[in-house]
Amino acid sequence: xKLLLLAHAFNGxxxxxxxxLREAGHEVCVELDxxxxxxxxxxxxxxxDLVIAPFLKRRIPESVWSVxxxxxxxxxxxxxxxxxxxDWAVLEGATDWGVTVLQATxxxxxxxxxxxxxxxxxxxxxxxxxxxxxITRAAVDAVLEAVTRGxxxxxxxxxxxxxxxxxxxxxxxxxxDWARDDSATVLRKVRSADGHPGxxxxxxxxxxRLHDVHPAxxxxxxxxxxxxxxxxxxxxxxxLLRRTVDGAVWIGxxxxxxxKLAATRAFAAEAAALPELAVPLQRDAEEWDELHYxxxxxxxARVGWLRFVFHNGAMSTRQCERLRDAxxxxxxxxxxxxxxxxxxxxxxxxxxxxxxxxxxxxxGDSAADASWRNIQAMNDVVHELLTLDxxxxxxxxxxxxxxxxxxxxxxADLVWAHEGVVLNPHYKNMGNLYGSEYWTYTLxxxxxxxxxxxxQRRLPIGAREAAALGLVDAVLGADAAELQDLAAQQAAxxxxxxxxxxxIDAKQLRRAxxxxxxxxxxxxxxxxxxxxxxxxxxxxxxxxxxxHFVTRxxxxxxxxxxxxxxx
Length: 567
Known about the structure:
The protein is an alpha/beta fold. 38% of the residues lie in helices and 21% in strands. The protein has 21 helices and 22 strands. The strands form four sheets. A six-stranded mixed sheet has the order 2-1-3-4-5-6, sandwiched between helices. Strands 7, 8, 9, 10, 11 and 12 form a six-stranded antiparallel sheet that branches. Helix 11 packs parallel to helix 13 (367-386) and helix 13 (367-386) packs antiparallel against helix 20 (520-536). The radius of gyration is 24 Å and the shape is globular. The two termini are 19 Å apart.
């Protein structure tokens, strides 16, 4: 079928549908929802059999839905209506939930149902994480069913989980009363607003929005200074420790104006005055920090698991340096296999654009200088992984990866992902960046000549296609939970394999031959010459694109690599 995806932005769900529908054999194009006249023109040009709207912030015009079947993806069960369905579900602690694909009519979320999928929400997940995992997976299944059926399903009883019509969540419903709210309440309120709009609050007397909040253990609270509920007690990594009536929470990120930054970065001077509650890399997993290391398996077949959970997959200079230092320290560990595991929502998305944008406003600094520091630090991490030649390495993708984050993964010996992972192994969407992270070395090794096409076409690819191209070595399971279980089995078997020594010998030989042919430093220098022009040259495209990205500037047109109906 000919399908037109109409979306406010080319977000994760829209990308996943783009991949799944193309894999199912459909002809798919995309139009961003800019204005009614633009949508009307897109429909006339594309002449689709169906318009599918996975992510909209306003109505489809009647001039379109009245003459063309338009299917809207609603992140709630049949009978649930309103623009903040998932916000309410997380805020109220719902577990039984669903996704509905319904036909657009004159009323919001009230048209005939074409398909729906029930699901269970994880009790401790944020709204954003639930959207990226349970909602996205259910939405893909439901859309594929709806497209295959081609008509509405017979009327069914409204599920008990449906809440009817509900508008946006009022600010007051998520306001935190630090003198009364316990930690569970604070966590639930912030999780229901993560990643948008965040919870309105104040830190150090300044208005901001809270994101990325984690429970503090009793052990952490015992190490912190005493304080009353609401007091800021200590810092760790990106986060500030704030007292609640029954414990404390770590506040990882805040939004100040348009920028979402690490809390210790946004309030650097104030945070510096607080004591640091550092923790070792290898510790109890309940003790929160961005990095964590553990080992499994017997002596002689040990597997090391280095987990790095960076909010939204963005890696600032500080975070890159922490990850590089962790990799360096683990060289001394006697493990046969090292698994580099990113967060459940994202493996990595490369350099931290919000952090870079903030540097543009700092005296004596600039966005160009910050970009240069950040890309150098990213390269240091990748170099450490590429030269770790006395053990096998695995990049474990529980979530999506983009730009430099893809090439961080490709630096490992093996890349494992689940079926729902989407990769964007290219840079050009960010102001025609050339890219670094040794991509000119790792991409040809994996994809050969086909890699050039990936960099130019700038489209997302699913895990299955990535495996066919050689970018991913194994697709394990349908989701992140299955991947974790299967990866543990695979890693244990690989570490204990009888040919392990031969694998290491072959790895070291190939690295030596590659270095003799062309040193890694030459790849890095060549890439950075291009990046230097991107950052400091006369063409401001990267800086304009970055500024538009972090400030969420509305799109003025749909990029032509998406809007293939306009070529």
